[in-house]
Amino acid sequence: MTMNQRICGGLAAVLLVVSPVWGQVTPADYARSEGLREAWMYLTENVADPAVWVGETSEFVYRKTVPGGFSFVVMDARTLQKRPAFDQTRLAAELSRISGTTYTALRLPFTCVEFSRDG
Predict the structure, then answer these.
(1) Chain centroid to CA 86: how far?
(2) Could you give the CA distance from residue 30 to residue 88 in angstroms, rounded to a whole number?
(3) φ/ψ bin of 69: left (φ > 0), alpha (ψ from -120 to 50), beta (otherwise)
(4) pTM of the full predicted structure?
(5) Quick one: which of 115, 95, 118 has its CA closest to 105?
(6) Pairing of strands 59-66, 82-84
(7) Residue 91 CB coordination number (10 Å)
């Protein structure tokens, strides 16, 4: 048996013994991964979520990343005009008042909106 074969054989034996330990996921691992999502989620800009059509209109609404959070946008597919879907600052203030939890315009407690058929 050559020296390389002995080293490879020994390395394989070590990996077989150690590999089950690498596969164990702990609650701390999950907590850390959730923390990464929270830390990195607000670093992107202009990444849009899937759009939803507004009833039978030529408009659709979507959420996109902006510095510090998310913005909801309505776009008219015919004119290509964009506008805020609603007053996020006012909604955040009212949701904060009603719930007792503080919300900001860019960090509302939901990820999608749906308008009535007539907008």
Answers:
(1) 21
(2) 32
(3) left
(4) 0.69
(5) 95
(6) unpaired
(7) 16
Give the residue carrying structure tokens 């390395």. Answer: 11
Helical segments of 1-119, H only: 3-22, 27-40, 88-99
SS3 (DSSP) at 25: coil
> What is the domain partition of the chain in residue ranges?
3-40, 43-119
Q: Which residues of 33-53 are buried (b: 16+ CB within 10 A; e: fewer)?
A: eeeeeeeeeeeeeeeeeebee
Distance CA 107, CA 96 (A): 11
- pLDDT tens-digit series, residues 28-87: 888 888 888 777 878 889 999 999 999 989 999 999 999 999 999 999 999 999 999 999
Q: Are 56 and 117 spatial neighbours (Cβ–Cβ below 8 Å)?
A: yes
Q: Which amino acid is at 96?
A: S
Which structure tokens are listed for 38?
């929270």
